[in-house]
Specification:
The complex is a heterotrimer of chains A (198), B (343) and C (501). Chain A has helices at 4-30, 51-73, 80-92, 95-116, 123-128, 133-136, 138-159, 168-192, and strands spanning 37-38, 41-42. With 198 residues, chain A is mainly alpha-helical. Chain A folds into two domains: 4-88; 95-192, no CATH class. Chain A has a two-stranded antiparallel ribbon. The longest helix of chain A has 27 residues, at 4-30. In chain A, 32% of the residues are buried. Chain B folds into two domains: 39-130 and 260-328, Bordetella uptake gene, domain 1 (D-Maltodextrin-Binding Protein, domain 2, 3-Layer(aba) Sandwich); 132-255, D-Maltodextrin-Binding Protein, domain 2. Chain B has helices at 2-24, 52-68, 83-91, 145-154, 169-181, 193-201, 212-220, 272-285, 289-297, 307-328, and strands spanning 41-45, 72-76, 98-103, 122-129, 132-136, 160-162, 186-188, 207-211, 225-229, 235-237, 241-243, 262-267, 301-306. Chain B has a six-stranded mixed β-sheet, sandwiched between helices. A five-stranded mixed β-sheet of chain B has the order 7-6-8-5-9, sandwiched between helices. A two-stranded antiparallel ribbon of chain B has the order 10-11. Chain B is globular. Chain C has one domain (2-488). In chain C, a hairpin with a 6-residue loop joins strand 1 (186-187) and strand 2. Chain C starts with a helix and ends in a 7-residue tail after the last helix. The chains are: A mainly alpha (198), B alpha/beta (343), C mainly alpha (501). Chains in contact: A-B, A-C, B-C. Chains B and C meet through helix 1, helix 2, strand 2, helix 3 and helix 6 of B and helix 2, helix 3, helix 15 and helix 20 of C.
């Protein structure tokens, strides 16, 4: 969490965003069927699908106003543009933030690889030469290769943040480890726990 | 001391070996032969673990294994209100290795916007089904269905009724009873049969309509008192006696030919020789002792219906049910657009 | 005391070499299930049901296996919660709150040991309740109509919000409301109307808790650990002793008893699970604590309260399952199906029809608790070494497990994308002073709150009077009002200026 002073300034922003969200929910809820009957059952507002969104929207709006009010009371609204400018430079354009973004981004790439299945077709030649089970399954093979590459990339990217370029032997050990780990995890899930792989 | 230690270690090893073996199943043989089946079959059950559909799927899997000579697994794919399982099976190659563990609630799935497929696209194998029963709390003033109807005639909507979710099988049955008897309940929706029954126990509602198999223990234990079967035939319940049929006094009930069935289905365009192989195995498992005694205990009526007969039944139910839901305004698509004729 | 003599007899009869080996194996499996993100007790029981059933095990052995997984999985969640601050369940989030701070202060070993012992004691509480309080707790379960259930759910979200807010309490409630908002996506629980789905078929069935739990707890932790090579959040290597201290047990005796009772009581209410039990008992412990200042540095008392209550829930949840055929929690639901596969139908007649079954289940639960104590102590010797793994490798694995964990719930990659998106939101929330635990409890209890609120209102024709006339409802209304308007001496708010991460 950030310190007290910038936090109050950000509160004005998060409070504002929450207020908008609350308003949007109320607007959305009013589009839902209210009144009359639904499915042969009476549908007054408290029984309608809109009831809960209306309550949540109003409560969010109330909370958002409270947060903004408390923040403004402590001077959160003063000099907001300048603050944002400084905040952008001091907190977002930093190495730390970039590393965080990279961690999240690598997960995104991993998920994308599971969705697009770049290695799936490799299972066909493997099946021809007599592979069975995991390797013969296009999902299984793709999962193993994607996971191994992800583990390797994650470890390589973060393990030596400031060091020199890692030695070949080091990379070889990491690759072998990632592959073994990926196979183990894939086998445990698909064979032992009966969870189909993505 | 040494002995016990040895036994302990041996036991541990054995049990973990058993766990592994059961997890792996028989090694699948990739040699391509003509004799179907050669690899494990998966039943994708569209209902959550613990319900009737799930239990029947597991029973079928258990009984099918020796018949077909391969492992049969059950996976609960409950996403999308059952659509996950239906669409998954539909999207798979027609090689007979992917079955859907379905119940009668697959019938209106098309008009509810859950799936693209309609009843005619599937080959159903109906294992069993339970009739519906309407019950009250033991200290309720209603001694018979006629009492209840009289009270409702005098005071419409004065009785609170629970019957699962809006638009579900038991709610539809309740609507049929309302029409046949010319009365109106105050319907209170619950998420399923068990919460509906609990609501009578906590006295939140006055009557509950769910399947006899789900109510049997409560009836025998004296927690609820059955008024009538919401069917055309009475039912003998050992440990209680005979429960009369509502259809005797209210013959209009037969207008809604929808009943519970639990079982499985394959896409109708699966190769006929595979379907034939499954059909012969299905006929054998309907004689399976374990399955029969289970259904008997659960008060499920054995059905063993497949092929033309099951198709005719489901098509008829589809017409009536989907149009009924459409009238109530809870459909996403019109049955007419899906090519379902008005009954 | 016929129940007791039967119980002791079964305690002896259950122990055969096969059962013993099975118990150890399944408890271990359960602990692994509980510790891995995304794998739950429910899934564990579901998988083992298939195995035990196809192996044709006798019913005692099958129940031994299933209860072993159940107890192990509920306990196993405490390991990643304490060591990595990544709870696998909403119940574990209460443990993580105090436990992880203790771990950072070099008391990780002691915390895990205490959690293990308390989970054991909690489970035994459940057994005692099954032996002594069945009629009473069945009556309690039947007192809960929609009105009471709604109030309990609302109370759960509110106290979680107040307890976890590092800044102002309002931010905790906002997080809870946001969770409840996510829960409204998809089919509404009363009419089946599609809400906020934006015509995406994947959203039609709503947002499920597991991707939210993983996104909210694991993703921010991964981002934070990778942001700084030696982040302040990186777990301390000092572990302290792995043995539970007797003095600790004595010191927390009162909290233990109270938490056990809360766990048993909450567990016996149908549909309500371990998560509310843990938060309710943690709230009570913190509110009535004699050492409130301990909660700044991480309080063992908080861990004791949460862990005792969530394991005591198991016995509680079995009571309505066995006497009414209504399961008290999702894993109990799965257990019901397994019992019925063995031709035993739980219900009011169970005690006369199968008089041996309840004492037998009590005996099995006792042995499962003992096996959990033994395996837990062994596993903690291994699991604490997780802290010695360099964070990039450890977090790589955690990331991999979160992906497969959110996929495995209903085999859809959409949940993985959802988890990643929510993870980013959760990270931003934590940075700006909004806690994430209420978000998770909100999405779990949101549907329960909504369904019961609307039904209560339909039931009484729109009148809110029953909220103030039904005796149990009044108690909850008062508790809720107190938790909103009563200014607590919150150590969290007091230190908001000094803590920063």
């Amino acid at each position: 969490m950030i310190e007290e002073k910038p936090l109050r300034k950000l509160d004005v922003l998060t409070g504002g965003a929450l207020g908008l969200l609350g308003g949007a929910i109320i607007a959305g809820a009013l589009q839902m069927p209210i009144g009359g009957t639904y499915g042969g059952v009476d549908n007054p507002w408290y029984a309608s699908p809109a009831a809960m969104p209306l309550l949540i929207g109003s409560a969010l709006l109330a909370c958002a106003l409270t947060i903004i009010f408390q923040a403004v009371k402590r001077g959160g609204h003063l000099g907001l543009p300048n603050f944002l400018n400084a905040f952008w430079k001091s907190s977002i354009l930093t190495l730390d933030a970039a590393r965080g973004a990279m961690a999240w981004g690598s997960l995104l790439v991993y998920a994308l690889a599971l969705q697009l299945q770049p290695f799936a077709s490799l299972s066909y030649p493997l099946r021809r030469i007599g592979a069975t089970d995991l390797l013969a399954d296009s999902n299984g093979l793709n999962y193993i290769l994607c996971s191994a590459l992800f583990l390797l990339a994650f470890a390589l990217a973060f393990l030596r943040p400031s060091g020199r370029f890692p030695s070949l032997r080091y990379i070889a050990v990491l690759s072998a480890g990632s592959l073994v780990a990926a196979v183990l995890v894939a086998w445990t899930f698909s064979e032992l726990l009966r969870v189909p792989l993505p | 001391m040494k002995n016990t230690l040895f036994r302990l270690v041996a036991g541990l090893t054995l049990s973990s070996a058993a766990l592994f073996l059961s997890g792996c199943g028989p090694a699948s043989n990739s040699a391509e032969t003509d004799s179907w089946p050669t690899k494990p079959i998966t039943i994708s059950c569209f209902a959550a673990a613990g319900g009737g559909t799930d239990l029947i799927s597991r029973m079928v899997a258990q009984a099918m294994e020796p018949e077909l000579g391969v492992k049969v697994n059950v996976i609960n794919r409950t996403g999308g209100r059952g659509g996950a399982a239906i669409n998954h099976v539909w999207s798979r190659p027609r090689d007979g290795y992917e079955w859907g563990g379905f119940s009668e609630s697959v019938i209106p799935a098309s008009v509810l916007g859950i799936t693209e497929t309609t009843t005619k696209d599937w080959a159903y194998f109906m294992v069993a089904g339970a009739p519906g029963v309407i019950s009250v709390a033991p200290d309720s003033p209603f001694k018979s269905l006629e009492d209840l109807v009289a009270a409702l005639k005098a005071n419409p909507k004065s009785v609170k009724a629970a019957a699962g979710l809006t638009g579900g099988l038991w709610h539809t049955k309740l609507l049929a009873l309302e029409e046949a008897a010319g009365v109106q309940f105050q319907f209170i929706p619950y998420k399923g049969s068990q919460p509906s029954q609990l609501a009578v126990l906590t006295q939140e509602v006055d009557v509950v309509l769910t399947s006899i198999s789900e109510q049997a223990e409560l009836i025998r234990g004296g927690r609820v008192r059955p008024l009538a079967m919401v069917e055309m035939a009475p039912k003998e319940l050992d440990g209680f006696g005979t429960i009369p049929a509502a259809g005797v006094n209210y013959p209009g009930l037969s207008a809604l030919p929808v009943g519970q069935f639990l079982g499985f289905a394959l896409p109708a365009d699966t190769p006929t020789d595979i379907l034939a192989r499954i059909t012969s195995a299905f006929e054998k498992i309907m004689q399976d002792k374990e399955l029969i005694s289970y259904c008997d205990e659960q008060l499920l009526d054995l059905m063993g219906i497949h092929g033309e007969e099951s198709l005719a039944m489901t098509l008829k139910a589809e017409r009536v049910w989907t149009w009924k839901l459409h009238e109530l305004g809870i459909t996403v698509k019109s049955p007419a657009d899906l090519g379902i004729a008005r009954p | 005391m016929a129940a007791f003599s039967d119980f002791f007899q079964h305690l002896y009869l259950i122990v055969t070499p096969t059962n013993f080996a099975l118990l150890m194996g399944t408890v271990l499996l359960g602990i692994i299930f509980g510790a891995l993100p995304g794998l739950t007790a429910t899934l564990g029981i579901a998988l083992l049901t298939t195995v035990t059933f196809s192996l044709d095990l006798p019913i005692e052995s099958a129940m031994v296996a299933l209860m072993g997984v159940y107890v192990g999985a509920i306990y196993g969640g405490s390991h990643p919660a304490i060591l990595l601050n990544i709870p696998g369940t909403a119940a574990g989030a209460a443990t993580a709150l105090e436990g992880h701070r203790l771990c950072q202060n070099g008391r990780g070993g002691e915390t895990i040991a205490t959690a293990t012992v308390m989970s054991f004691i909690g489970t035994i509480f459940g057994v005692l309740a099954m032996l002594l309080l069945i009629p009473l707790l069945t009556k309690l379960a039947l007192q809960f109509q929609s009105t009471e259930t709604f109030l309990l759910a609302l109370f759960g979200v509110l106290i979680c919000g107040s307890l976890t807010a590092p800044d102002t309490v309002v931010k905790g409630w906002v997080a809870g409301l946001f969770g409840m908002l996510l829960a409204t996506v998809g089919m509404d629980p009363i009419h089946g109307f599609q809400r906020f789905t934006f015509d995406l078929p994947a959203l039609a069935d709503g947002i499920k808790p597991i991707p939210v739990i993983l996104g909210a707890f694991a993703i921010p932790q991964i981002i934070r650990a990778m942001q700084k090579p030696k982040a302040p959040d990186a777990p301390a290597l000092k572990l302290g002793s792995l043995m539970p201290k007797l003095s600790n047990l004595k010191r927390h005796l009162k909290v233990t008893i109270r938490s056990g009772l809360i766990g048993v009581g909450v567990g016996s209410i149908p549909g309500v699970g371990e998560d509310i039990a843990a938060w309710l008992s943690y709230d009570t412990a913190k509110r009535t604590s004699k050492h409130p200042d301990e909660y700044k540095e991480g309080s063992l008392e908080g861990v004791v309260a949460a862990e005792t209550a969530n394991n005591a829930c198991i016995g509680g949840a079995l009571i309505p399952l066995l006497t009414l055929g209504v399961p008290g929690s999702p894993p109990a639901m799965m257990l019901l199906s397994a019992i019925m596969l063995y031709h035993i139908v739980p219900g009011p007649r169970l005690p006369e029809q199968h008089p041996e079954f309840i004492p037998q289940m009590c005996a099995i639960l006792t042995w499962a608790a003992a096996a959990m104590l033994a395996c837990g102590s062994l596993v903690s010797r291994i699991s604490v070494h997780v802290l010695r793994v360099p964070p990039p490798i450890l977090m790589g694995f955690v990331a991999m497990f979160t992906v497969i964990g959110s996929y495995a719930f209903d085999f859809s990659l959409f949940n993985v994308w959802l988890m990643l998106g929510l993870g980013l939101i959760a990270w931003a929330m934590e940075e700006t002073g909004y806690p994430v635990a209420p978000l998770v409890i909100g999405i779990i209890l949101g549907p329960m709150a909504e369904e019961n609120l609307r039904r209560a209102l339909i039931d009484h024709g729109g009148s809110i009077l029953p909220f103030f006339t039904r005796p149990i409802a009044i108690v909850f209304v008062i508790l809720i009002l107190v938790s909103i308007f009563f200014k607590r001496r919150s150590p969290n708010t007091a230190t908001s200026e000094t803590t920063s991460s």
